[in-house]
């Protein structure tokens, strides 16, 4: 009978380490060589279960080497077998960002920079550093263009995916600088492999969108266009790599970087016409072949690019979304980020032919939808929907009460999230805008979670809201208190 940790078999030590944090596992491994050998698996799982890369030769090649050759433990298991979630950053190096390159030292406070500028010799060094960084930026820009034009990106990523047998989640996310206020362990808040070396080479972190738009600036418009083109390329290359690698366990695909495929896509890879994305990378034939890889997909998230004209949102065709809805028959959770795009054809695509016959969760975020479109969605999937989330949605309807009645009629609804839903309605020729803010917004940031099950001795929450509905329309600043455990207030106003 085992009496000490050292005497426990490796399987039990592995089970114990499952409940420990990363630092605890590292500290345990530092105690002795025997425990170090027995904890290799959990060490690898905790550190590499979620891995983030970007589309550079250095980052992609590192993933290949890690997945197919790096081993651990006495049994020489591949590290690649530990990766379950592969996150891909949409970082890119458009020529328009060359102006951001300077010779200033990294991580210096303003007073240090000021003193640095006062030094005449240091200014010469800055010119030298700036020249080196511009060369590095040009090299990375040329490298990404070569990857795209020759479809080497697909080849490298497909080779890596073929060695990641356990991957069941792939996310494509915007490039961003880690935020100290976000949970440290979140993969979305980490730098991709090779990013720190890139920063050392060019002097800044590459991005994938414009943080502050200047609609009057043609330079900003050109940069935004370049970012959108690169985002579409990275998404298409990832899809093609998934198809080529033949992975069979993919359950979640998150495309969180705004993109668009509103362009001519070749019928097959043999087409030689010049296009932004080569036919070898993506074509209609690739999408059809993806049907097999996506047959196991349970969660699908799509974020479409914003389309502005003179600072105002405009419609941009979303007919291409059907390429995804047609090949994901087993999706149970669908999230759609409209990003203020006024085109709503995507909703009819979701309904058409019952695109997701097993849909249980529907999330609509950051965009407009009419009462009729929402009603068509809810009616089509009424037999399966259990969770609905509306976040920063503009709902065009005649009466909010009708929406509540429609939601109330769903037989299987278990959870309802309403976060900053604005509805636009007209009464007696006057247009009203009514905002549903987050409950108790001043005290916490949680959405309203609604359980339609009747509480003992109390009315159903939506029924109470329905009874107060007409008064909400006439007095937009009315506060409606919903008496269900726990007590939650919905603050309404302009």
Automatic annotation (TrEMBL):
Ranges where the F-box domain occurs: 2-51
Signal peptide: none
Domain of life: Eukaryota
UniProt xrefs under CDD domains: F-box_SF (cd09917)
SUPFAM superfamilies: RNI-like
Name of protein: F-box domain-containing protein
């Amino acid at each position: 009978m085992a009496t000490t940790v050292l005497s426990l078999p490796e399987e039990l030590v592995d089970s114990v380490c499952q409940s420990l944090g990363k630092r605890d596992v590292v500290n345990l491994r530092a105690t002795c060589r025997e425990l170090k050998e027995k904890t290799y698996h959990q060490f690898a799982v905790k550190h590499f279960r979620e891995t983030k890369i970007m589309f550079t030769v250095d980052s992609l090649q590192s993933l290949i080497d890690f997945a197919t050759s790096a081993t651990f433990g006495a049994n020489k298991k591949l590290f690649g077998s530990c990766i379950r979630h592969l996150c891909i950053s949409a970082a890119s190096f458009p020529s328009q960002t060359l102006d951001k390159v300077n010779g200033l030292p990294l991580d210096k406070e303003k007073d240090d920079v000021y003193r640095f500028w006062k030094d005449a010799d240091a200014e010469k060094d800055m010119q030298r550093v700036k020249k080196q960084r511009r060369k590095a930026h040009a090299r990375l820009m040329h490298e990404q263009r070569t990857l795209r034009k020759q479809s080497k990106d697909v080849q490298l990523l497909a080779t890596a995916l073929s060695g990641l047998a356990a991957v069941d989640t792939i996310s494509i996310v915007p490039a961003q600088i880690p935020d100290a206020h976000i949970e440290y362990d979140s993969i979305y808040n980490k730098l991709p492999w090779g990013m720190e070396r890139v920063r050392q080479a060019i002097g800044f972190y590459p991005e994938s969108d414009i943080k502050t738009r200047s609609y009057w600036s043609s330079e900003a418009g050109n940069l935004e266009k370049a970012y959108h083109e690169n985002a579409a390329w990275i998404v298409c290359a990832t899809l093609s790599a998934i198809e080529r690698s033949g992975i069979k366990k993919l359950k979640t695909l998150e495309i969180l970087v705004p993109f668009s495929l509103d362009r001519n896509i070749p019928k097959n890879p043999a087409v030689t016409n010049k296009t932004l994305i080569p036919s070898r990378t993506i074509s209609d034939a690739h999408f059809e072949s993806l049907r097999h890889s996506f047959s196991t997909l349970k969660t699908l998230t799509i974020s479409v690019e914003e389309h502005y004209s003179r600072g105002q949102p405009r419609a941009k065709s979303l007919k291409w979304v059907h390429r995804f809805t047609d090949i994901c028959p087993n999706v149970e959770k669908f999230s759609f980020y409209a990003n203020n795009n006024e085109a709503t054809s995507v909703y009819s695509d979701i309904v058409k032919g019952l695109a997701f016959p097993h849909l249980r969760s529907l999330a609509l975020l950051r965009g407009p939808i009419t009462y009729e479109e929402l009603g068509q969605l809810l009616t089509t999937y009424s037999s399966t929907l259990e969770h609905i989330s509306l976040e920063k949605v503009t709902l065009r309807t005649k009466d909010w009460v009708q929406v509540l009645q429609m939601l109330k009629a769903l037989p299987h609804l278990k959870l309802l999230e309403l976060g900053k839903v604005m509805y636009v309605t007209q009464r007696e020729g006057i247009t009203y805008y009514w905002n549903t803010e987050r409950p108790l917004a001043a005290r916490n940031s949680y959405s309203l979670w609604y359980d339609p099950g009747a509480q003992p001795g109390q009315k159903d929450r939506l029924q109470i809201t329905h009874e107060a509905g007409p008064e909400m329309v006439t007095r937009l600043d009315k506060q409606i208190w919903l008496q269900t455990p726990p007590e939650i207030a919905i603050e309404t106003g302009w």
